[in-house]
Recover the amino acids of this structure.
């Protein structure tokens, strides 16, 4: 039976776009596990590595010369906040993976600083994911994942790896940092997949 | 009929407010009785779910501030202006009231009891809550550096003074006040800086671990300063509280 909390009324807003268990914030909170890495654009490199070891890389100049999209999306953090209508500029994964030959079904995103997260490759294709390098018309600041971060807005935001360095394409699934620390392997906010076995 | 539990699944459990304890003018501790609770690792948090009589629900995450133990836990909550859940927990909830919790959660910002490494705990404001669990459960050398605006904003003041004065010398506590220093203090109020950190950081060869918790700006500053004074970034664990309207 449901537990009713005496004296609780709530401060509800009419937010029909909120996934279950989320609340809306107009701030941009930060969730990360350690110090914020600082990466010079001269040293920055993005790599895609396939299951056979084929490696494609982009320098900052090469990466930012690729065709870019300007998605406006809602984002949902597992710590219960959602932020509506965030504006980004970034390169679609469809573009980055267009010339990559692979049979991979999974991707592990590796970050500067050592963070990892795993995502099925089909969740990164067909206009669902970007490597973003601007937020609200400004260069993406380090605390929010700059120089560039993954943006996969239909999954909980820990899947949108900050400080992205390498996309490792794999035939098998390999749980990442939070996925091995008790969080859900897939992380769909609309099915409230926060923790393992949710 | 009761639904079969899914193995490994964190289910919602009912919790009863056993008692409350005022910590400051705007923060208090809720002592929760939870049947079958098996304890936690210091640093972990729980999700709290409140349900209004008409079925409307709200969820937030709160750090556990008590030492691990069965059937009971404590969360320490700071009121967030215009918040939805924190004003209820700090100003409305009374002994006997029921809510739901799920946890313990988080497998990274934790200090395991078996970990022999010395620890440096750095808290800003109510970010001291999960660090307090680490202090209460400390079995290896522990230094706490606690930054608040003023002495009256500090949580757990009396208990921290006792812990820091204990004969075993396991825990050392140092306060930093950013706006108002205690009456008669020779040290003026100031922000945490590299000097203050250099005085408490463990020697580089001590194989220590640092836990930093507080508002985002505080954590960013402290983590950067720690890296600056030579702390291994891989051994700095951070938990950030955004001003999220909770």
């Amino acid at each position: 039976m449901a537990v009713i909390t005496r004296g609780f009324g709530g401060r509800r807003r009419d937010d029909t776009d909120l996934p279950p268990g989320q609340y809306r914030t107009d701030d941009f909170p930060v969730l990360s596990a350690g110090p914020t890495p600082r990466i010079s654009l001269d040293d920055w490199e993005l790599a895609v590595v396939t299951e056979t070891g084929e490696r494609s890389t982009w320098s900052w100049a090469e990466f930012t010369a690729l065709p870019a999209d300007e998605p406006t999306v809602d984002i949902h953090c597992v710590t219960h906040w959602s932020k509506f209508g965030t504006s980004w500029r970034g390169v679609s994964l469809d573009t980055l993976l267009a010339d990559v030959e692979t049979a991979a079904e999974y991707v592990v995103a590796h970050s500067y600083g050592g963070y990892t997260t795993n995502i099925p490759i089909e969740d990164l294709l067909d206009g669902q994911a970007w490597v973003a390098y601007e937020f609200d018309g400004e260069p993406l600041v380090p605390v929010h994942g700059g120089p560039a971060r993954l943006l996969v807005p239909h999954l909980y935001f820990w899947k949108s790896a900050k400080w992205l360095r390498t996309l490792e394409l794999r035939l098998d699934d390999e749980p990442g940092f939070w996925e091995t620390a008790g969080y859900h392997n897939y992380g769909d906010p609309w099915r409230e997949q926060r923790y393992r076995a949710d | 009929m009761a639904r079969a539990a899914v193995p490994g699944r964190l289910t919602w459990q009912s919790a009863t407010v056993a008692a409350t304890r005022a910590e400051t003018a705007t923060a208090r501790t809720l002592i929760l009785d939870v049947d079958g609770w098996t304890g936690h690792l210091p640093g972990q948090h729980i999700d709290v779910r409140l349900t209004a009589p008409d079925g409307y629900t709200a969820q937030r995450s709160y750090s556990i501030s008590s030492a691990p133990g069965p059937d009971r836990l404590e969360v320490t909550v700071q009121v967030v202006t215009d918040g939805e859940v924190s004003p209820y927990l700090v100003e409305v909830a009374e002994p006997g009231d029921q809510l739901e919790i799920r946890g313990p959660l988080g497998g990274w910002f934790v200090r395991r009891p078996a970990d022999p490494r010395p620890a440096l705990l750095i808290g800003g404001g109510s970010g001291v809550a999960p660090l307090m669990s680490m202090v209460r459960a400390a079995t290896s050398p522990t230094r706490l550096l606690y930054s608040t605006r003023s002495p009256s904003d500090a949580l757990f003041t009396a208990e921290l003074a006792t812990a820091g004065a204990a004969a075993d010398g396991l825990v050392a506590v140092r306060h930093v006040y950013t706006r108002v220093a205690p009456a008669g203090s020779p040290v003026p109020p100031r922000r945490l800086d590299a000097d203050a950190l250099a005085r408490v950081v463990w020697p580089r060869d001590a194989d220590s671990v640092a836990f930093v918790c507080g508002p985002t700006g505080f954590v960013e500053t402290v983590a950067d300063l720690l890296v600056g004074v030579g702390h291994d970034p891989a051994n700095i664990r951070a938990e950030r509280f955004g001003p999220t309207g909770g």
Q: What stands out?
A: The radius of gyration of chain B is 18 Å. The longest strand of chain B covers residues 13-24. Chain B has two domains: 13-105, 119-241. Residues 13-105 of chain B form a domain with the Elongation Factor Tu (Ef-tu); domain 3 fold (CATH 2.40.30.10).
